[in-house]
Amino acid sequence: MTLLLDVRDVTKRYGGVVANDAVSLQVREGEIAGLIGPNGSGKTTLFGAITGAYPVDGGDVIFNGASISHLRVGPIVRQGLARTYQQTRIYGEMTCMENMQISSRASQGNVMSLLRLKARGAQTRAEDLLSFVGLHEKRFEYGGRLSFGQQKLLEFAMALMSEPKLLLLDEPTAGINPTLINGLIDRLQRANKELGVTLLVIEHNMRVIMNLAEHITCLAHGRVLASGTPDEVRNDPRVLDAYLGAQ
Amino acid sequence: MIDPVLDRLRKTPEWLVLVVLGLVSLAAPFIMPGLVTQLAFLWLMVVFAQTWDVLGGQLGYNSFGNVIFFGIGCYATAVMQRDSGLPYFDALTLGLLLSALLALVAALVFGAALLGIRGHYFAIATLGLGIAAGELAAGWDYIGAGSGMSLPLFPGELGSRELFFYFVMLAIAAVCFLTLRWLYGTRFGLAMNAIRDDEDKAEAMGLHTTAIKTVAWAISAVFLGLAGGVAGNMLGFIDPRDVAFSGATFGVWMVLMAILGGKGTLWGPVIGAIVFHITKELFWTYLLGWQRVALGVLIVLIVLFFPQGIMGWLADRRRARAGGAA
Amino acid sequence: MVDNFLLLVQNPNFALDVVLNGLLAGAIFALAAYGMSLVWGVLNIVNIVQGELVVLGGYIAYAALSHGVPAYAALPVSALAMFAIGWGLYYTVIFRVVDKDLFISILATFGLSIVIQQLTNTIFGSDVRSFDTGLGSFYMLDGAVTVAWIKVIAFVLAMVSGGVLWLFLRHARLGQAIRATAQNPRAAHILGINTDRVYAMTYGLNGALCGAAGSLAVMAWTIHPYIGLPYTVRSFMIVVVAGLGNVGGVVVAGLSLGALENVAGFVLGAEYQIAFVFTLMVLILVWRNWRAARRRTYLS
To answer: What is d(CA B75, CA B73) in angstroms, rounded to the nearest whole number?
Structure first.
C-alpha cells in the first residue's frame, strides 16, 4: 500500500517546552491508524502541526506525495486532509442539514461556485450521512441544541461530507455514551471500508483503539515511544511504563 | 390579540407579501403627496439596515464604519455632476455608476486590510475608519472641504424632483432586498453563517473565508454607494461630517435599525428600518434639541433590553406558545 | 506639508518645542488609557464612553473653577465627582453588560457616549473651553522652546494620579480584590469577594482617573463636547500597543502618541490632527493583524 501521510521528524516548541520532538509516523492509504499516549504527550499538537494550524519548528509533513508543512489550514484541507476537534466544533446557529450542506466538497470552491443554488445531490448525500451517524431525525435541529455526543457525531458526519482522503479524529469516543461506543466503532470501520476514507485516530480508550487500528503509534513526552501492530504496542514494556508512570 | 394576526401573516405566501408591499410602495407617493421626501428617506433607511446586516447579522462582523461607502457614493456622484459637463440625467447616471464602482473598490481594499481583524477590534477599527474618512473629506479642497458640496438643480418642474428620487431610492431598496434574498438562499449565505458561528472551523473545513467576507462587504458597499449618490441629490447638499460620513446619525442608525428588527434575518432589518423611521418622524420634532440624547438612550435601552430584536422576539414567542401547547 | 516638515528638520530647537509639548499632552492620554485598561482587564469591557468621561470631568472642573474653587482643588473635586458618576453608571447600565457579548458592551457604552456628549453640549454649550490658571510659561534655549508651567504641572499630576492608583491596586485590600477579580472572577467570587462591588469600584476608579485627566486637560489645554471620541480612540490605541496590564507600556505609548500627534498636527496642519489619530489607530490594528497572520504562515 502507498503512503498517504508521512510525518518526518516534526518538532514543535512552545517557548521552552518541546511539545513534539522529532516525531515521525506513517499512515498508509486505506488503513486505520491509531495515535495513543498519556495526557500531554503531544498528540493534539501533532494534529495541529499536520493540519497547518501553526508553524512547525522542524521536520516535514508529506501528504499524498507532496510537502504540506509550509501551507496553511485552508489549502491543506482542500487537498483532502480533514480533522475533527477534541472539543467539538460545529456551527451552533445553523441546522444539522445546513451544517452538512456547507461542509460539502463543493463548498470549498471559489465564491462564484457558492453563488449557484444548492445542489440537489449534496442534499441527498447530507441526509444519507446524517442517517449514517444516526442523526437523521435531528436534521432540522440547530447544531448548538444537540448534546455533546450528538455534536461529536455531527462533526464526524461533516468531515465525511467534505470527502477527505485522510481524516484525523481527535478522541471520537470521548463524551459518547458508553453503550453507543460499539456502534461508533462500527461506523468508523464502515467509513473506512465503504467510503474509502483513511483514518488517523487519537484515542484514550485502549479497548477501542486496539480493536480499531491496524497500526498504532504511541507518544510520550513529545517523542515516539513505540509503533507497530496493536499486539506489539500492547506488549511493549515502555508503553506500559509510560501509562503507569503517568498515572 | 396579536397572535392571530401574526399567524395569518406567517401563513401568507412571501410572494403575496412582496407584491402587496410593492404596490403600496408604488402608490404611496400619490396617496401621501406631502410625505414624498420622508418616504424616500424610509427606503434609504431600509437600504442602510439591510446592508449593515450582511456583515453584522449574517457574517458576525459588526461594522461601525459602513457609512464610509455611503459617503464615497455621495461625493462620487456629486463630483461627476459638477465636473463632467454632461446634461443632468447623463451626469447623474454616470455619477451613480462611479459611486457604485468606487464603493466596490473601497470595500475590496478595506476588506483586504481589515476583515482579518476579529471581534471588537474590527468594530473599533471600522469606527475609526468612518471618522477618519469624514475628517479627511473635511480637509480636502477638491470636494469642498469643510464647507461641503452643493448639488446641481433638478431640471424638472416643481415637485417632480421629490417624486423622481423617491422612485430611484425605492428601486435601489427593492433591488438590494431581492439581491440579498437570493444571496441568503445560496450556499454563499450558508458560508456567511458558518463564518459567523465559528470562523476557525469554517477555515478548517476549506471555505475561502477571506474571499467570502470581502465579497459580502463589497455587495453591501455597492448598494450603499448608490444610495449615497441619490441621497446627496435628495438633500441637495453634502456636508462631510453631517451627511456623507455621518457616524453619529446614519452610521449609528444602521446598527440600531438592524438590531431593532432582528439581526441575521432577511426581514428584520426591513422591519427595524420602517419602525425606527416612522417613530423618528413622528416623535423627533417634539424632542427639540434632545433628539441626540434620545438616540443615545434608545441605543442603550435596545441593547440592554431588546437585543434579540422584533424577529427574535417573535420567534421566542412562537417557541414559548408551542412549548405551552405541548 | 513638506515645508512644515523641513521647518522641523532644519530647526531642532523648534522641533524640540513641538515634541516636548506633545509629550506633556501625552501624559493625559496615558492617564485616560490607564483607566481604560483597568476596565478592560477587570470587567472585560471596551469602554467606548471613556473619552466622554474625560470631557465630562473637564467640564466639572471648569464649572468648579468658575465658581471660585482654587486651581489646586480642581483635580480632586473632579475626580471625586467622576468617581460617583462612574459608580452610578455602573449600577444603571454597565452591570447589565458585564457578562454579555463584547459587541453588546461596545454598543451600550457607545450609546452612553452619545448621551453624555449631547448632555454636555446642552448644559455647557458647544464652545471650546479652557481655564487660564495664570501661571505663565518658561523659556529654554533663548526662547526657542516655550512651555507653559501648567502643562508641566499637569504632566506631573497625571503621573502622580496614575502612580497613586497603581500603588492602591498593589497594596490596598480592595486593590488586591480588584486584581484577583481581573484574573479569575469565578474563583474570586468563591473566595468571598463581592465581584459586583469590585466591578463598581473599578468603574468608579476609572471615572476618577478620567475626572483627573479631564481637569488637567481643561487647565492645560482645551476641551469641547465633541472631543470625547478622540480620547477614547487614543486610549484604545495606547492599550492595544502597550498590552493589557502593562502600566509602563501605557506610559511610554501615551507619551509617544502625544509627541507623534503633535508633530503630525504641525506637519499635516492642525485640521488633520484628528484624522491622523483615527487613521493611526486603524493602521495599528491592521499592522498587528498582519503580524499575527504572519505567525500562522510558516517556513515559506
So the answer is: 6
Count of residues for chain C?
A: 300
C101, C296, C298: best mutation site toward chain A, by most A Cβ within 10 Å? C298
Residue C26 to residues A101, A239, B301, C60, C156: CA-CA distances in angstroms?
53, 61, 35, 21, 12
Phi first, then psi: give them for residue A169, nearest 5 degrees. -110, 125
- Among the partner-chain residues C93, C113, C285, the one whose CB lies closest to the CB of B125 is C285
Q: Does C295 touch chain A (CB under 8 A)?
A: yes
Instruction: Answer yes or no: do B290 and C272 touch at CB < 8 A.
Output: no
Can you list the domains of chain B with their CATH numbers? 38-297 (1.10.3470)
CATH architecture label of C2-126+135-296: Orthogonal Bundle (1.10)
Q: How far is the C-alpha of C139 from the C-alpha of B123, rounded, in Å?
A: 44
Report the C-alpha gap between A157 and A139 in whole angstroms. 12
Query: How far is B74 from B244, CA to CA, in rounded Å?
Result: 6
- Pick B206's closest partner by Cβ from A90, A98, A162: A162
CA distance C265 to C276: 8
DSSP-assigned letter for residue A142: B
In 3D space, the residue among C220, C87, C212 whose CA is nearest the CA of residue C160 turns out to be: C212
Q: A156: Cβ–Cβ under 8 A, 6 or more apart, which residues?
A: A84, A133, A169, A172, A187
Beta-carbon neighbour count of residue B141 at 10 Å? 8
Residues 106-145 of A with CB under 8 A from B: 106-108, 110-111, 114-118, 143
CA distance A57 to chain C (A): 9
ipTM given for this complex: 0.90
Distance separating the N- and C-terminal Cα atoms of chain B: 21
What domains can you pick out in chain A, each with its CATH number? Answer: 3-88+163-246 (3.40.50.300)
The pLDDT profile of chain B, 326 residues, written as one tens digit per residue, is 677 777 777 778 888 888 999 999 998 889 988 889 999 999 999 999 999 999 999 999 999 999 999 999 999 999 999 999 899 999 999 999 999 999 999 999 999 889 888 888 899 899 999 999 999 999 888 988 888 898 888 888 888 899 999 999 999 999 999 999 999 999 999 999 999 999 999 999 999 999 999 999 999 999 999 999 999 999 999 999 888 898 878 988 999 999 999 999 999 999 999 999 998 888 777 877 788 888 889 889 998 999 889 998 888 888 887 765 44
Per the CB < 8 A criterion, the answer to whether C42 and C202 are in contact is yes
